[in-house]
Please model this.
Amino acid sequence: MKLISFIALPLALGLSCAVNPAVRSLSSSVSETPTTQSVQAKKLMTGADQVAAYLPYLKGKRIGMVVNQTSIIGSKPSVDSLVSLGVNIVSIFGPEHGFRGNASNGAKVDDAVDAKTGIPVVSLYGKNKKPSKEQLANIDLMIFDIQDVGCRFYTYINTLNHVMEACAENNKELMILDRPNPNGFIVDGPILEAHLYSGIGMHPIPITHGCTIAEFAQMINGEGWGGVAKTNPCKLKIIKLANYTHDTPYTLPVLPSPNLNTQQSILLYPSLCWFEGTIISQGRGTYMPFTVLGAPALKGKYDFSFKPVSIKGMSETPLHQDEDCYGLDLRTYDTNLLRKTKQLNLKWLMELYKAYPDKARFFDTSYSKQMGNFNYRSGNEALKKQIIAGVSEKEIRQSWEPGLSAYKQIRKKYLMYP
Model:
């Protein structure tokens, strides 16, 4: 798809309606919310692809962009596209995995200069998590355009929050080019307890939050989360998705991070990532991460096996490195079952704990530096105890209430799509 085709789009495409007082629209018109059936009959378009809706607003402004390799217009990096259209981009801000998306999980990313455009790149996953006053001084408008996967412990929503906080503090407007949530059909999991806030969870939300990145930004503003005060919200300008619903299947055109390298891994990630707080490998150190589960001690209990190795740019010191791991092969698991139930899969966690021979080591975070505390992954103190005690799945899900239902009511206030 050529870039010029987007310039011809009607200006009305993708314009936002103000759900929150801090959100400004590029149009005074507000259309009715279309039905799910009518939306799905039309072509989905990202906010970034609707260039005609926002290009005039960028002209004459000094622009900062929070982007990574998923930030594309058509098939071309959005930074390159906008520079070619005469937009004055003065700074690029990169999240975890870096601007080009080639840094390993959790690896510190340094500031740099983009070799292609010569634009300075400021890391938001190194010495500072949010832009400083000095870094924002020569910027008139910030743009956030990053593909999220709709999961609490995926760090891009934290980056969004830090950017919003900085913009609010320094009176800078933030434009969000909205993108679909591939896991937007699931709102599930325990609500994160405040004493477990960390770099992999800083909001009182379930594991899968069910919002697009723009909807989540409105929730940050409206609820006053993460240093963004209700009395001084971030000024947002949102370019909405066209023809999108939360149930719309969406295959990501660009991999969001090195270890989410297939659509299968993206859809399984919310149900598998809490294994990072256990002795079970999720396939880091293979080319099929987040589609397999296993450990050396499960030999004889499962026939399927894989061997994690050091892979530069993906997992350089993976759990159980150079050891044969035995367990579950989920590469052909029918993810439509997740869409049907609209729930995380708890059965795998329950099954592998039951199968593991040394129960005392299953949640032992001292075993490996790569393993995070399970409670920080689950977001509460109860789930680990429930798994150990053999509590039923039904009882575990009941324990997530009333918090989960309360969150769903909060979420409704900020939804822009059916």
User: Anything to note?
Assistant: The chain has a mean pLDDT of 88. The chain is about 25% helix and 10% strand. Residues 4-253 form a domain with the Rossmann fold fold (CATH 3.40.50.12170).
